[in-house]
Amino acid sequence: MAARRRWLLVAAAAVVIVLAVRVTLLRDSGEPSAEEFCEEFAHLLVVDELSLTVNPNDDASARDAMDRTARQFADAAAAAPAEIRPDVQLLADLTAALRDAVADTASRETFDRAAALIAAQDPFLETQDAAAQRVIDYVTRHCIAAPG
Predict the structure, then answer these.
(1) What is the pLDDT of residue 146?
(2) 21's torsion region: left (phi>0), alpha (psi -120 to 50) or beta?
(3) What is the b/e burial string over 69-84, where b = at least 16 CB atoms within 10 angstroms of the residue's CB?
């Protein structure tokens, strides 16, 4: 059971970090462009690599990583292209809820942390997968160059 709880924490952190997108550049019109979004999306690879070094049993590191990811999602939600802005906002809200769950619990209290993570994710269960898929689809259409 402890392995399952640890897996839930690692899986939740991985989902959040894999989807972490920091978007800060805006066009003169104030509306983000696909190109700007894609440029910032490239930062995901760096964030993802760094997240692999976080030990979920090191509370300070886990909290720092979750806080950094939540801030990045908040930035992405504020600057996301209109087509995917609601989906990025939903993922930002989910990330903030997971960050709060990690911040409010200790890794040594695996049951409490797992319960907090599950409770934080619960309001998003029906919508998170579809939102994540729409963001992935947007990135695939606009950010990934066709082989040529």
Answers:
(1) 60
(2) beta
(3) bbbbbbbbbebbbeeb
Tokens (6 digits) for 45: 């690879």
Provide the pLDDT for residue 109.
92
Inter-residue contact 117 to 12 (CB < 8 Å): yes
DSSP of 48-71, one letter per residue?
Answer: HHHHTT--TT-HHHHHHHHHHHHH
Write out the two tokens for 135: 């963001």
Q: How far, in Å, CA of 13 to CA of 48, rounded?
A: 10
**Distance (Å, whole) CA 19 – CA 69:** 9
d(CA 116, CA 135): 26
- Decide if 88 contacts 135 (C-beta within 8 A): yes
Residue pointed to by tokens 């599950």: 118
Residue 23 three-state SS: coil
pLDDT in tens, 84-130: 999 989 998 999 999 999 999 999 999 999 999 999 999 999 999 99
Provide the terminal-to-terminal Cα distance of the chain, rounded to the nearest Å. Answer: 48
